[in-house]
Amino acid sequence: MLVDVAPSTDELIYAWHPDGFTMHSMRSDTVSRFYLQVPNGTDVNTWSDHAFGMRCRRGSARGIDDWALTSGPITESSVLPMRSYVQTPMRHGQLFLAGDAAHIVPPTGAKGPQPRDRDVSLLAPALTALIKKRDPKLADAYSEAALQRVWRCTHFSWWMTSMLHISGDPFDAELQRSQLRWVFNSRAAAMGLAENYAGLPLSVG
């Protein structure tokens, strides 16, 4: 959902809740974006603004002191399939793939822009060398080099999704709680999450 309201916090909120995953993020200074986990096949037209707002409050506010979710008019809502896809190789003859044309990740890990930017940083000099200098070395190495970052980001997005999206299975729920406690209490786990979330340097695969 896109909501015409300033973000209620300077930081993103990821929330695990028995009703499903909730995420609160900033689109701009005046627009907020929310993700709510809903069953497959959900028709957003059957949800009222009030129902959306209640789910956001219930999912986002647990355990956060002195904080309240600011409401506003919902301007856009849709159901987004949670899927991962990687095209290998990322080249077919003279056709080079980059960004969403080559790989899709669920939004949980916020990783879409990072592998895309890495693709472009590799592809631009590769095509320049191929076209201007007739040197194919970088172009021939492009797919393998780009896929290193793509698979890292794909795995991280899968890991975040599996940790935060409920399945309805009590066994899975306990595994998720265990993962969350580990990330919260272990400095090593928190640093690993931060490194993957904030983005590896472009020089790293």
Main features:
alpha+beta; 5 helices; 13% strand; 5-stranded antiparallel sheet; 205 residues; two-stranded antiparallel sheet
Overview of the molecule:
The chain has 205 residues and is of the alpha+beta class. Helices cover 43% and strands 13% of the residues. A 5-stranded antiparallel β-sheet has the order 2-3-4-1-5, covered by helices on one side. Strand 2 and strand 3 (22-26) form a beta hairpin. The protein starts with a strand and ends in a 7-residue tail after the last helix. The model has no long low-confidence stretch (mean pLDDT 88).
Report the average pLDDT across residues: 88
> What about the largest sheet?
5 strands, antiparallel
Overall geometry: globular
Provide the β-strand percentage band: 5-15%
Count of extended strands: 9
Q: How far is the N terminus from the C terminus?
A: 33 Å
The strands making up the biggest β-sheet line up spatially as 2-3-4-1-5
Counted by DSSP, the helix tally is 5
- Helix % is 40-55%
Poorly predicted runs are: none
H/E element string?
Answer: EEEEHEEEEEHHHH
